[in-house]
Amino acid sequence: MKIAIIGAGNLGLSIAKGILHSNGATTMYLTKRNTSQIKEFEKYGNVIVTSDNRQAVEKSDILIFAVQPGHFAKILTEVKDLLTENHVLISTITGFGISKIEEIVGADHYIIRSMPNTAISVGNSMTCICSNELGAKRIDLAKAIFNRMGHTLEIPEDLMQAATVICASGIAFWMRLIRATTQGAIQLGFDAKEAQELAMHTCNGAASLLIDSGSHPEEEIDRVTTPKGCTIEGLNEMEHQGLSSSLIRGIVSSFEKINQIKKQ
Ligand SMILES: NC(=O)C1=CN([C@@H]2O[C@H](COP(=O)(O)OP(=O)(O)OC[C@H]3O[C@@H](n4cnc5c(N)ncnc54)[C@H](OP(=O)(O)O)[C@@H]3O)[C@@H](O)[C@H]2O)C=CC1
Ligand SMILES: O=C(O)[C@@H]1CCC=N1
Hints:
Blueprint: E1 2-6, H1 10-21, E2 27-31, E3 47-50, H2 53-58, E4 62-65, H3 69-79, E5 88-91, H4 98-105, E6 110-115, E7 125-131, H5 139-147, E8 150-154, H6 160-187, H7 192-213, H8 217-224, H9 230-240, H10 243-263
Parallel strand pairs: 1-2, 1-4, 2-3, 4-5, 5-6, 7-8
Antiparallel strand pairs: 6-7
The structure holds NADPH dihydro-nicotinamide-adenine-dinucleotide phosphate (NDP) and (2S)-3,4-dihydro-2H-pyrrole-2-carboxylic acid.
């Protein structure tokens, strides 16, 4: 597969690393205006770093756009005359709907919207995807690309903003929970490195339990909470302090913000 990542910033480079990690491309173009910080990627023989978006589009079949929303329309306009019937356009851009993409390049292209997260760099993204009418013919291809780098779920486009909050911003939310757990562990006597090791592997174990068993979180909680024991004591105190409520409120605030950004 010949892949171009237009906008090799935080997310674009995470995708590039995921693709390299999974040997997922025959050639990969990485573009940004200032290429000096990412030249090192050319040490991988099949990677070309350039600021020339048109060259990247001409030489690739799969185009993954990962620029800031304010830059996207200009870039699509810059390359639209080069788009052929073979190109698959995959946008990761927040709040930029399929209809807006079609307005610029036309509806006669395979257009996919995807919402991965930065864990794609280590092959463990949760990626939601949807497509335009024609793009439905390439959705399995897009799923295959993202499944090599984590887990994929096809969703209706009107859930894309919610998916951004849960999956993309979600990385930051879970990081803060891991960090807080680490701070608690330090207070209980572990050094900082061990505290983080304990926190992140326990987090990983909790998610793996649900993924492997398909069980509900409360079932797993019931298996841990000894009557009159320390777990239920801690859990109830966390809830008295608003743990679930603050998480839900944070998610809803994030969603309200994303909807404001979309209107701008
Ligand atoms: N970060 C995340 O976790 C996630 C981000 N997203 C979405 O992905 C998009 C990118 O986000 P993020 O990676 O954080 O943003 P960044 O600002 O880190 O990356 C955007 C990149 O685009 C490049 N760029 C700007 N203009 C051009 C241009 N004309 N041609 C080529 N490249 C250009 C910039 O580099 P330069 O200035 O050198 O050109 C920059 O490296 C956003 O729309 C965001 O909403 C979605 C899911 C997760
Ligand atoms: O914070 C943001 O607005 C973007 C979208 C999801 C991740 N980063």
